[in-house]
Amino acid sequence: MSAETMAELRVPASLQWQALSGRTIRAAVREGDLLFGFLAPTVFFICFYVPLRHSMELGGGKYAQYLLPVIVLQAMFFTAMSAGDRAARDTFSGMGTRLRSMPVRSWLPLAARMSANLMRALAAIAGALLIGSAFGFRFHDIGGAVVFLALVLAFGVALVIGADALGVIVGKPEAGASILLVPQLLLVMTSTGFVPAQAFPGWIQPFVRNQPVSRAAAALRDLTDGKYTVALGISAVWVVGMIVTFTAVSVAVERRRA
């Protein structure tokens, strides 16, 4: 088939994106991924809130305000793990290879997966805010809430891009999920998301204070109080750095596969 004929048969990119996105989102709904994304923050919020609330509220303040930011960030990690699994399954099943042999834009498979990942991220944020509100979490003002959501989604985008690239590289769903579990546990559990840095041994406190999850959690807490502090700028630098780095890796992976 000539290039001219292929060009005539090429479906508009918008329709290709709709078809591929619809396929991916329907699969996420059918497999319960969106439902799990919505419910998981509730489970983890309660699991940490119940045993830690009393000790954390001795000095005043509501633990729900302190805890919710890391629950939302953890939900973004789970979204990234789902993204890695989805990319690995597409690679393992040969879906990516078939699409590359068709008149489909090279960026569309990733864009379609990102659509499903965005839906899952929004479901996770909704679930986290719902359970947090039930236990007393509140935003100080609308502006802070908007920036809060923007920062969470940007953090999630950074993680999803990296996880998607890893899933394509690994090509095996079970292996990809296992690899992504390690950094999630390391960064979330050794962060100031659940307890202050002072609760950790002195030798690890510098890492706890300055790693990306702690920085993002601190910025999100300030935003819930309507404050725009230096923590927001530091977290933004972390997020932009991760997006640039992981995007470069993703582009390199796609070029290698082309």
Q: Count the E strands.
A: 0
What is the count of helical runs? 11
What is the string of helix and strand elements? HHHHHHHHHHH
Average pLDDT metric:
83
| Rg value | 20 Å
Portion in helices: over 70%
Beginning-to-end CA distance, first to last residue: 20 Å
**Uncertain runs with pLDDT below 50, 5 residues or more?**
1-9
How would you characterize the largest beta sheet?
Answer: none
| Structural class determined from secondary elements | mainly alpha
Morphology call: globular
* Strand percent estimate: under 5%
Please give the domain count.
1
Question: What does this entry look like structurally?
Answer:
With about 260 residues, this protein is mainly alpha-helical. It has one domain (about 10-195, about 200-255). Helix content is about 80%, strand content about 0%. It is built from eleven helices and no strands. The chain has helices at about 5-10, 15-30, 35-55, 65-95, 95-100, 110-135, 140-170, 175-190, 205-210, 210-225, 230-255. The longest helix has about 30 residues, at about 65-95. It is globular and about 65 Å long.
